[in-house]
Amino acid sequence: MNSILAILGAAAIAAGGGDAVPAIPYQQFKLPNGLNVILSEDHTAPVVGVDILYNVGSKDEKPGRTGFAHLYEHLMFQGTEHLPKGEADRLIEAAGGSANGATSTDRTEYWEQVPANALEQMLFVESDRMGYLLPTLDQTKLDNQREVVRNERRQNYEMQPYGTAWKVLLENLWDPDFPYHWEPIGSHEDLQAATLEDVREFFRRWYGPGNASLAIAGDLDPVKTRALVEKWFGGIPSSATPVHAAPVPKPLTAEKRVTMEDDVQLPRVYIGWQSPKDYGPDDAALDILGDILSSGKSSRLTKRLVMDERTAQSVMAGQQSEALAGIFLVMATPKPGVTLGTLQKAIDEEIDRISREPPTAEEVQRAKNKIESQVIFSLEPVGGFSGRASHLNAYYWETGDPGYLPKDLERYRAVTPEDVRSAASRWLRADRRVVLSVVPRGAGAASPQPTPPARVKVAPKPEAK
Amino acid sequence: MRTPRRLASLAAAIVLGACAAPARQGPPPLQSAPAAALADRARTPDLGPAPTLHVPAQRKFELSNGLKVRLVEYHRLPIVALHLVLLEAGAAQDRADRGGEASFTAGMVTEGTKTRSSTQISDELGFLGASLGAGASMDAAYVSGHTLSRHLPRFIEILADVTMNPAFPPADFARVQDQRKVALLQQRDQPGSVASKTFGPLYWGPHPYGHWPQGTEASVAATTREDLARFHAEHWRPGAAELVVAGDVDEASLRAMLEKAFAGWTGRSPARAAAAERPAGGLRAVLVEKASAPQTFLILGMPGMARDSPDFVASQVLFQVLGGGSASRLFRDLREAKGYTYGLAARESAQKLGGVSYLGGSVRADATSQAVRDMLAEIEALRTTPVPDAELADAKSSLVLELPAGFATAAGIAGKLADQVVFGLPDDWWDRYVVAVQSATAADVQGVARRYLDPAQLTTVMVGDPAVVKPQLADLPLGQVDVRASPKGAAH
């Protein structure tokens, strides 16, 4: 941070001169039943964020039961032994709070952000879900939420332009056995196939206290809060610690070209590579590379395709790294009349260039500055999907250390222009990638079948349109 | 995700994959707390006294050029959020044949000034790690963003430069014009955009709110850089603007920075022309084709109210009961009992010149008519039966007690203050709001339901598959349903 301040010529620096990232103190303990607890005190506003992160996601599903972790997330809102369906929602609303849940490939998160006086009620809600849910689950609830999830899939994927492209990309990047092969939303067929017995087994295996972490941030008294956590969660029996399969992805051995049709006005090209897992070697360098390629008007792909040549309506590059592996993606939408081949040629040239010549120090520094200030902005809310409680929990599961932030920033500060170049040359190879072309329905190469959604075909050659 | 708060746009999620996160090493773990008794789950723990909302004090001052400023000092983190409101530069000011010019003008201010190129602006902001954007709603234009407080002087200098000195460089104008045309083209595939673009003219007719704020492909193509320069010169004036600042800065330093940065900006905007009337009328309904769509996107709209209406607060309670969240009637009935949808919302869109009461969202295609029937039944229930006491109390608590979280971040504070500016609300608006919510009765709520949820004046837009939806429409009380082809056209 000091070096960045010096470069910016900024005047002020925090007393002590060391770390300009504000301190977020926290305390951590474990209950005898295995529940990890993180408390972070901040009395600026009379609000608390409660976050429970279960260490289970769609990567823990089996083929044929995809979408199950996410369907399960919905069932967690269907009532428990002591809170009939709808009562938790009512409590949260009446308290003036908000709540939601989300399922990713690696983990499932539940949060509430409420006025501080409602903290104990939220501990009641979350502990009842952890300890007293199963006896109340029945076929009616399962059928209802299965239908809600299928509506979610229709709304956010099938009804959206390019909404099913990501699924096709994953299916081509990863082997069918590797659990990133499918999206957390799952398929209609698999959702239909899920049974109550599947649900019960999933709960028993993954939803015990030993596979969960509870983080609470905001206007709290740590001693009193610890007592409340013990009161509500202490009586939940400990559970066997589940074993996560940790398969290693099978590398791509060639370029794969795929074309699909969709209800879109303009085609779009997705170029995807396998990239390192989160916190792995080259992970930080590839995040910075994504910024250098497409963040801001002078980033390389934006400048060339959007600003100068004006062949692209939009271009985006970036990495998403997860527990088992990552994906580096470049995605570009051409202007009407421009072919995907034109964009791809330019993208290839830019990737090739940065694989040979390191970026400038200024490009790297700008990317680092953006990342560092993003961290500070992200410290604002105590609750919600990206609030303090959520971040403490995420670092806990990802690194074992809720206070990993300074080390994480250090990873980014340490990246040199040469690191970016060598990471690009290692990971973004033209002979180890998936090139997915989404084309307007009817404009696809061979198959003119007009109706059903997202028809996929593997093409041996790029189509020059 | 459980509720449709944000779209699961995976490609978008990629951008910030690995890094954004807080925390640092804390002191050693807590000493063991006093042994706690295990919980009695038979009864819900008491809430205890609710925190009261302390609306942060606004300090108001005026620069020597007449620009009004309101500041909330908030020193929790080294962050400052700024929101400049241009009161007479919203899309309602678009000329009839230049739809989108307000939004286009705002979109161009960050694309080059007399001294900075488009890329220079982007690079400088990137180096500061700050964000700055501009845009226009119907009622106002804005320039807003946030920065680390140590970069505030430079940030304010950039914000003032783009506000005062946009150059509309011809090459950048041509590039952005094409971007905006193509973005409009792409909206043809987005059911929500198609529905909104259909609803506006159908409901509002010739009223300024009847056009799409981004204009049409034709109006954007007809717009020249001279149009934008003229619009900017007339409407972006300190006499019709106000700057909201929230965060880690004190008044004296802020004032000095602003006086320096905004020196030389002068003038007022011309008086606003009187708006055309919305034609009164009964039922209007359109079904826009989206072939093979597995869902129907629905908008049900009825005459609502302007933001300064004395009925506004009671209507907030009404919409909280009807469709405010996961405890609301639409959520419980159409989603949690019947499984027609992932989520439906109901809200009052109350703007400066008028408003609309909305219900809407996506429902399973084969359940379209049943969903519409059920939504209308919920409306009828609110018109004929007072909301039960317990449900009313929950809705009112929700509206009041959610406020402290809204005031807990610099951007949240700036946003709330900006609303006060746009709609000309009194400084003590939020304190009054709390009192008004608390005093709303079931009769008040039923009264606003009768006035602002009138199914005899329903405008309905459906985007879906006519093969599935049309046969369901026979007995629905929507009036004659006009079926339209999906928006198509030569893509250049």
What does this structure look like?
The complex is a heterodimer of chains A (465) and B (492). In chain A, β9 (312-321) and β10 (326-334) form a beta hairpin. Chain A has two domains: 27-233, Metalloenzyme, LuxS/M16 peptidase-like (Cytochrome Bc1 Complex, Chain A, domain 1), CATH 3.30.830; 255-358 and 416-459, Cytochrome Bc1 Complex, Chain A, domain 1, CATH 3.30.830.10. In chain A, α2 crosses α5 (139-158), α4 runs parallel beside α9 and α10 crosses α16. Chain A is of the alpha+beta class and 465 residues long. In chain A, 39% of the residues lie in helices and 18% in strands. Chain B is built from 18 helices and twelve strands. Chain B is an alpha+beta fold and 492 residues long. Chain B has two domains: 59-261, 2-Layer Sandwich (Cytochrome Bc1 Complex, Chain A, domain 1); 284-484, Metalloenzyme, LuxS/M16 peptidase-like (Cytochrome Bc1 Complex, Chain A, domain 1). Chains A and B meet through β1, α2, α3, β4 and α4 of A and α1, α3, β5, α5 and α11 of B.
State the name of the first-level CATH class of the largest domain in chain B: Alpha Beta
Strand segment tally of chain B? 12
Give a short account of the largest sheet of chain A. Answer: 6 strands, mixed
CATH architecture of the largest domain in chain A: 2-Layer Sandwich
Helix content of chain B: 25-40%
Output the CATH homologous superfamily of the largest domain in chain B. Metalloenzyme, LuxS/M16 peptidase-like
The number of distinct structural domains of chain B comes to 2
Q: The CATH topology of the largest domain in chain B, please?
A: Cytochrome Bc1 Complex, Chain A, domain 1
Strand % of chain A is 15-25%
How large, in whole angstroms, is the Cα Rg of chain B?
25 Å
**Compute the gyration radius of chain A: what is it?**
24 Å
Tally of domains of chain A: 2
Beta strand % of chain B: 15-25%
What is the strand arrangement across the widest sheet of chain B? 1-2-6-3-5-4
- The share of residues in helices of chain A is 25-40%
Poorly predicted runs of chain A are: 1-19, 446-465
| Helix-strand pattern of chain A | HEEEHHEEHHHHHEHEEHHEEHHHHHEE
End-to-end span of chain A in angstroms?
48 Å
